[in-house]
Amino acid sequence: MRKFRKIAVVSWSVSLLFTTLLGTSCEMKLTPFADEGDASRISIERYDLLESRYLTTGDFSALQQMNTEYPMQTRMLIEDMLQLGEVNDPDINNRLLNFYQDSLLQILIQDTENHYANMADINRNLDKSFRKLEKLLPGIERPVVYTQIGALNQSVLIGERLIGISLDKYLGADYPLYQRYYEENQRQTMTRDYIVPDCMVFYVLSQYPLSRYDERSLQERELHMAKVMWVANKSLGSSFFKRPYIDAVDEYLSDHKGLSVEELMEADDYDSLLKYVAE
């Protein structure tokens, strides 16, 4: 329980996130979702299945695949998310395995794999959203997306052209374990429906971080996130994220029809946008 209590409090929330995310790079293999007729399609890598196999059975072949086929994902999991040490430490594999032997984490792994036995809907919606995003922001690079079990750490981990989804953070608002460690408003965002929206927000934010963050006013920070969420909503084809500052961005663009979305996201002066914020 000591380990679990320590890690359960660490999470990202889109509604509170204003920081620049981690930058890394990697190459990936084909996945079960790959569409052979469309090489450009977003296809989710099921890294979590290998991770689960190793963490529940100690299957060494699964560990080998994690290290050889997904070296960057494994490094990010061990070093950045769990902070267990460096991936090249002599005993790091045992440290990783032992960390997940907590009984609650073993239940979490099994529940995650059962809940996400099929992810076709998420893969399809993610692909649609990124196709729309590329039309809004033609210069944006299409990322590689993978799933993992992050022991209730970050919901989404971003690297350079890389999105890692922690499926164990999306088991539903009524999931019993969440009710022990999270407030109700937090649990409402820990559902399957939030996976694609979270991915869009985190990735757009990683491509357009707020410069001079520490020098910014609260309104400037919120307006920047509103721009990110506005783009996410457009890519999702719905008003998934709702807040007054997003409405201000929408009104601003209605009055500046010649402004491209890229220009909106690159703009660093928030004085003109502030005029659209209701007093």
- Low confidence ranges: 1-37
- In sequence order, what are the helices and strands, one letter per element? HEHHHHHHEEEHHHHHHH
What structural category do the secondary elements indicate?
mainly alpha
What does the radius of gyration come to?
A: 19 Å
Strand tally: 4
What spatial form do the alpha-carbon principal axes imply?
Answer: elongated
Taking all residues together, what is the mean pLDDT?
A: 86
Number of helices: 14
The biggest sheet amounts to:
4 strands, mixed
Q: What attributes does this structure have?
A:
single chain; 4 strands; 279 residues; 14 helices; elongated; disordered N terminus; mainly alpha
Structure description:
The chain is mainly alpha-helical and about 280 residues long. It has 14 helices and four strands. The protein has helices spanning about 1-5, 45-55, 60-70, 70-80, 90-100, 105-115, 120-135, 175-180, 185, 195-205, 220-235, 245-255, 260-265, 270-275, and strands spanning about 45, 145-150, 155-160, 160-165. It has a four-stranded mixed beta sheet with strand order 1-2-4-3, sandwiched between helices. α3 crosses α4 (about 70-80), α7 (about 120-135) packs across α11 (about 220-235) and α10 (about 195-205) packs across α11 (about 220-235). About 35% of the residues are buried.
